[in-house]
Design goal:
alpha+beta; 4-stranded mixed β-sheet; 4 helices; 11 strands; about 35% strand
Length: about 200
């Protein structure tokens, strides 16, 4: 803490005013059987030709069986401003996907799942024409329940809404969705129908 009444600009490596570099985010790389084989920096793993890595996708529902969707914040480097499932992301290397899914849902939406269960995995290679990035993911799917008030982090989530199957269809006809939404939604459908009793 300075002892005088004045302060000086932040100094990094001797350069006044330089901002601290963003911490490197590592993803867990996997082989074609989903076995961990190493790590890679997040952005590089999503650049062509892409590197197969572990991910997760969460579908949470309210007690009435409505699906919680989020619209991704405009400041996100990948798929900004588009609608997608409740939460998606990447486990830290060595972190269990279930733990990562619960953690990230709480961080993004400000509400922890009241119930969360595994709903299988799906692998895909999906190019995103809008960003030029590619999703080469081994995705762990989770379905669950949320009943706490939402407090979305504006750095991550621009909007959040609960929808019925009819409202989802209408929204998808009007607004852009993430390139992975259809793939993960279809893969999770059996577990979604079993958990909600709704004919999605």
């Amino acid at each position: 803490m300075p002892t005088s009444g004045t302060t000086s600009p932040a100094t990094v490596n001797g350069a006044p005013g330089d901002a601290l570099p963003a911490p490197e985010i590592l993803l867990e790389l996997v082989d074609d059987e989903g076995r961990t084989i190493g790590t890679a920096e997040k952005l590089s793993a999503h650049q062509e030709p892409g590197r197969l890595h572990r991910a997760f996708s969460v579908f949470l529902f309210d007690p009435e069986g409505r699906l919680l969707l989020q619209r991704r914040a405009l400041g996100k480097y990948h798929s900004p401003g588009v609608w997608s499932n409740t939460c998606c992301g990447h486990p830290y290397p060595g972190e269990q996907p279930f733990v990562a899914a619960a953690r990230r849902t709480s961080e993004e939406l400000g509400a922890a799942p009241a119930l969360l269960r595994e709903a299988g995995t799906v692998r895909y290679d999906l190019p995103d024409a809008a960003s030029g990035l590619i999703e080469r993911e081994w995705n762990h799917l989770f379905v669950g329940l949320v009943n706490a008030p939402l407090r979305p982090d504006p750095e991550e989530v621009a909007d959040a809404v609960f929808v019925t199957p009819q409202e989802l269809a209408a929204l998808r006809a009007e607004r852009p969705f993430s390139v992975w939404f259809e793939t993960v939604f279809q893969a999770a459908l059996p577990a979604i129908r079993e958990a909600t009793g709704v004919a999605w």
